[in-house]
Design brief:
Blueprint (H helix, E strand, L loop, with lengths): L27 H4 L20 E4 L2 E4 L11 H19 L4 H12 L3 E2 L3 E3 L2 E7 L7 E5 L7 E4 L10 E8 L5 E8 L4 E8 L10 E5 L4 E3 L3 E7 L14 E7 L8 E4 L9 E6 L5 E7 L6 E6 L8 E4 L6 E7 L2 E6 L7 E6 L9 E4 L5 E7 L2 E8 L2 E7 L5 E5 L6 E4 L9 E7 L2 E8 L6 E5 L10 E9 L5 E9 L10 E4 L14 H8 L3 E5 L9 H5 L7 H16 L8 E6 L1 H12 L6 E5 L18 H4 L6 H10 L13 E7 L8 H13 L6 E6 L10 H17 L10
Parallel strand pairs: 34-35, 34-36, 36-37, 37-38, 38-39
Antiparallel strand pairs: 1-2, 3-5, 4-5, 5-6, 6-7, 8-9, 9-10, 10-11, 12-13, 13-14, 14-15, 16-17, 17-18, 18-19, 20-21, 21-22, 22-23, 24-25, 25-26, 26-27, 28-29, 29-30, 30-31, 32-33, 33-35
Helix pairs in contact: 3-4, 3-11, 6-7
Length: 724
């Protein structure tokens, strides 16, 4: 879910260490100009402008509007100054280097993906351990020697250009892959001969929020926006289009398939071809929830797009097709999802027939090896059932334990099915399953240097402010004493129908090793209990999400897992909003706040890039006086109060984030530095040449987590690591 008058002085003050509160002689003059001084921290100046907006006759000041200009020299100088203060402080943390050393050790093991069969080759991703990006390998058979097919580590010197997507033509002879530069959502698509690696044509440029879906071997469908006026990293984009690219022709000749007119203006448009190459499926949406759906019969040269579902109140997609029968996944009249069938000749909703009916648990189906696999979430953990194409349930898939299973997605003629299993204390293991017998064997075991047997994950249900029961999974070392002294990170998201299911993280493994508790709350706004759970955390019910999160913190304290002095809250993107709202509403409840790439200015989020598409969850300040007031009352940027002692805060963002533009984080940091009382630092860490998170090099990821964990423990009062 996810850019102006006096320049900032070049010589901006650095942070003092906790032991060094006296300024150096060289910097005394500049120090007198800082906006905020405390015993521990000297912040750079942030100029206040005089911008005032009017919403329904109410004026709202926006003094840091100038920080939205990501191309200005003044903003660039501010970023450099803030990073100077932040990194000086982080480098003074005595055990930060030890954390980085252990993270490096934990990360340094071989990681291999499930195999993928294309043409005459088996493809897979592998990372030797500390490579910045995964490398794509291939081999002729399971026993053959593998060769490098694509090495994204060679795309750029600093590892910040990443492989975003890789697809193959029908016979596997041609590959098209997209790359992201500096973490941006803008992509380039490069087409190569899969056998020789030779680039076949000029790259396609200005591609965004797009798949690459082949039609036979002749070409593929992709989506993009026109490049916006102004900054490509922050200017609004709201006219998405679907194109067809025929191999060997220039991009300027690509055929517009959908979008591009006032009658067909959509923010999100995607197209894909069914596996049998029979149907083109087109999905169009104006928000992150709900879509219209069309199909086109590619076997008929004169066929037009046919409407399948025109009701944007629901989400519908084509799961697969067999002959003229479409298998649709939908939440129409089924808030937890169902699978229906319909003939393509008359595909509208009145003709749908249930194939896998609606149930009490959220459904996420996939296909492979001639079967349909129904993965259900049961209180945020996986249960998987196998069905044949006659609608008969074949079996329950026996999983290794309680956790998250994913995969079960292969070509229809595949002989094996692959899936992965993980939870918060179990590194990901890949399994190979015989779809006829249902038997699974380990295909790739994790090589992580982490003894999961020493840790325990427990699911609890706590009560939120309005009486709603909310699940949370708490993970920690076995035998841990519940005396309220344990360093704890509470993580949440709570939005956009996204579910937080158990998964292993190398970084969190290091936190657990250090004696930390890691708790994940499944808040309203997410998708853990279907559409109704999602809607209960949207628009003028958004406060439910924050209440759920605050109640999770209170549960951890009441049950003596931790205390306010040892509790940190963390979340990213919409989760960054969650942290920003929680820390401004209940600052006394937390020791540390870690909002990452957060949506923090709720009055202007919809004016940047594709942010207007988030209005289903948030509403906008222009909707009504009531919606404006509701947003204003929780918007983190607008709710920082003078003199309040906020938790020690480390805001993190990337200067190339064109999903949630960094201006959100910049403004929040400026407000905190200007107004916060007490001695807790209010810092912002701005990763350069980085975006919203995808494709971040391993080296940068290790550095980020070393800083985050170091900052967290230090401001919980630790002078040394809790568990050396």
């Amino acid at each position: 879910m996810r850019m102006i008058l006096t320049a900032v002085a070049a010589g901006v003050l650095m942070a003092c260490s906790p032991q060094q509160s006296e300024p150096s002689t060289e910097n005394q003059a500049q120090e007198q100009q800082t906006q905020q001084e405390s015993a521990q921290m000297q912040y750079p100046q942030t100029r206040k402008g005089d911008v005032v907006d009017t919403y329904f006759e109410q004026q709202v000041a926006d003094p840091y509007r100038w920080l939205e200009d990501d191309r200005s020299e003044e903003t660039e100088a501010w970023v450099k100054a803030q990073n100077g203060v932040t990194f000086a402080h982080l480098e003074d943390i005595p055990f930060r280097d030890k954390i980085e050393q252990r993270l490096t050790e934990l990360w340094n093991y071989e990681k291999i993906s499930a195999p993928r069969f294309e043409g005459d080759y088996i493809y897979f991703y592998k990372n030797d351990g500390l490579q910045n990006q995964y490398v794509v390998y291939r081999k002729k058979s399971e026993d053959a020697e593998a060769e490098v097919f694509l090495d994204p580590n060679t795309f750029s010197e600093d590892g910040t250009t990443s492989l975003a997507q890789l697809t193959f033509s029908e016979d596997g002879s041609i590959a098209a892959y997209s790359i992201s530069e500096g973490g941006s959502d803008w992509r380039k698509i490069i087409v190569i001969d899969a056998e020789t690696g030779e680039q076949l044509e000029e790259p396609l440029v200005d591609v965004k929020f797009s798949g690459i879906s082949w039609k036979g071997n002749d070409g593929f469908y992709y989506s993009s926006y026109d490049k916006p006026e102004g900054s490509e990293l922050s200017a609004k984009t709201d006219q998405h289009k679907l194109y067809y690219h025929k191999l060997g022709t220039p991009q300027s000749d690509d055929v517009l398939i959908f979008g591009g007119t006032d009658e067909e203006k959509h923010r999100y448009v995607g197209g894909y071809v069914t596996e049998d190459d029979r149907f083109l499926v087109v999905s169009a949406a104006n928000s992150t929830s709900g879509n219209t759906l069309y199909i086109k019969d590619l076997s008929d040269p004169d066929a037009e797009l046919v409407l399948v579902d025109g009701d944007m109140a629901y989400d519908t997609s084509v799961l697969t097709s067999r002959g003229s029968t479409l298998y649709l996944e939908t939440n129409m009249d089924a808030p937890n999802g169902r699978v229906v069938t319909v003939d393509a000749s008359n595909p509208t909703a009145e003709n749908w027939q249930d194939f896998i009916a609606h149930s009490d648990n959220v459904l996420n189906p996939s296909t492979g090896a001639g079967y349909i696999f129904a993965e259900y979430m049961v209180d945020a953990v996986s249960k998987v059932e196998q069905y044949d194409y006659d609608g008969n349930k074949v079996r329950d898939i026996e999983l290794p334990g309680l956790g998250s299973a994913s995969g079960f997605s292969e070509k229809q003629d595949a002989e094996k099915v692959y899936y992965s299993f993980t939870n918060y204390s179990t590194p990901q293991t890949i399994y190979e399953m015989d779809p006829e017998s249902g038997e699974s064997v380990v295909y790739q075991e994790s090589g992580a240097d982490f003894d999961s047997s020493q840790y325990v994950s427990k699911q609890v249900f706590y009560t939120s402010k309005d009486g709603t029961k909310v699940p949370m999974i708490i993970t920690h070392k076995k035998g841990m004493t519940l005396d309220g002294s344990n360093p704890t990170i509470l993580y949440g998201y709570g939005g956009f129908n996204i579910s937080l299911t158990p998964s292993f993280s190398i970084a969190n493994a290091a936190w657990l090793e250090m004696g930390g508790v890691y708790a994940v709350a499944n808040l309203r706004g997410g998708g853990e209990y279907g559409k109704e759970w999602h809607k209960a955390g949207t628009k003028m019910q958004k406060q439910n999400v924050f209440d759920d999160f605050i109640a999770a913190a209170e549960y951890l304290i009441d049950e003596d897992y931790t205390s306010s002095e040892r509790l940190a809250i963390r979340g990213g993107s919409n989760g960054g909003l969650l942290v920003g709202a929680a820390m401004t509403q209940r600052p006394e409840l937390f020791a540390v706040a870690l909002p990452a790439v957060g949506v923090l200015d709720m009055l202007r989020y919809h004016t940047f890039t594709a942010g207007a598409g988030w209005a289903y969850d948030y509403g906008t300040a222009e909707d009504s006086p009531e919606m404006f007031e509701y947003l204003l009352n929780y918007s983190p940027v607008h709710n920082v109060e003078e003199g309040v002692a906020y938790p020690a805060t480390l805001i993190t963002t990337g200067d190339h984030d064109d999903r949630v533009v960094p201006a959100h984080s910049f403004k929040f940091a400026a407000e905190l530095q200007d107004k916060a009382g007490g001695d807790n630092p209010q810092l912002i860490r701005i990763e350069t040449n980085a975006g919203h998170g995808a494709g971040t090099p391993v080296s940068k990821t290790i550095e980020q987590y070393s800083d985050i964990f170091g900052f967290t423990l230090y401001h919980m009062g630790y002078e040394a690591l809790p568990k050396e």
